[in-house]
């Protein structure tokens, strides 16, 4: 029977923890025996759990690739209802797919219309999933690469379930970036609840060109 990935991860975490027994001299590596099962070492159980995890990830990856293709195709055909359906299908797969979507946030240096739209759809999926497992990877993506990919990473970071963990990194991006990336970082900080938002906003208003103030205010609304 295949376990959901989140259960497999819990199994791995539990098996990796030190084993407590009534024997103070007992050491890890004891052989566990289940009801009616032959004796199996912890290494065997870990190996089985990892194999099952990899199998589930492989199946999820295949499903994700199919839906990503549907998203891009829906854009090419100008069928937003199909894109919405694909997005709902993606969200239904659960937060376990979040790491598989990170590369799709970066449409590349010269993206097609379909690739750009697909990246925006992935942003929406990740914002809905709010996976706690990708915050550090998103921060890394927001700090380097093409501007569009960095902005997309910041849009997802804005809904991170652990704001305190990512806020300092987003502040660093805001301090060092220019133009659209800087604005995206400011908007992310606003959604994350940064306590120094008023100071950051005042500094940005002092620097931003008048033609961009409207879009900045719209993003903060």
Short précis:
The chain has helices at residues 5-16, 42-76, 80-92, 98-101, 113-129, 135-143, 147-157, 163-176, 179-192, 197-207, 210-220, and strands at residues 31-32, 40-41.
What does it look like?
This protein is mainly alpha-helical and 221 residues long. The chain has a domain at 134-221. It contains eleven helices and two strands, in the order αββαααααααααα. The protein has helices at 5-16, 42-76, 80-92, 98-101, 113-129, 135-143, 147-157, 163-176, 179-192, 197-207, 210-220, and strands at 31-32, 40-41. It has a two-stranded antiparallel sheet. A hairpin with a 7-residue loop joins β1 and β2 (40-41). α1 packs antiparallel against α2, α2 (42-76) runs antiparallel to α3 and α5 (113-129) runs parallel beside α7. Residues 7-36 have low confidence and may be disordered.
Multimeric state of these chains?
single chain
Main pleated sheet: 2 strands, antiparallel
Rg, nearest Å? 22 Å
**Strand/helix succession:** HEEHHHHHHHHHH
Which stretches of 5+ consecutive residues score pLDDT under 50?
A: 7-36
Give average pLDDT, whole number.
80
* Secondary structure: helix percent: 55-70%
Count of helical regions: 11
The strands making up the biggest β-sheet line up spatially as 1-2
According to DSSP, the number of beta strands is: 2
* Terminal-residue CA separation: 48 Å
| Class based on secondary structure composition and strand pairing | mainly alpha
Strand content: under 5%
Global shape:
globular
Which keywords apply here?
221 residues; mainly alpha; two-stranded antiparallel sheet
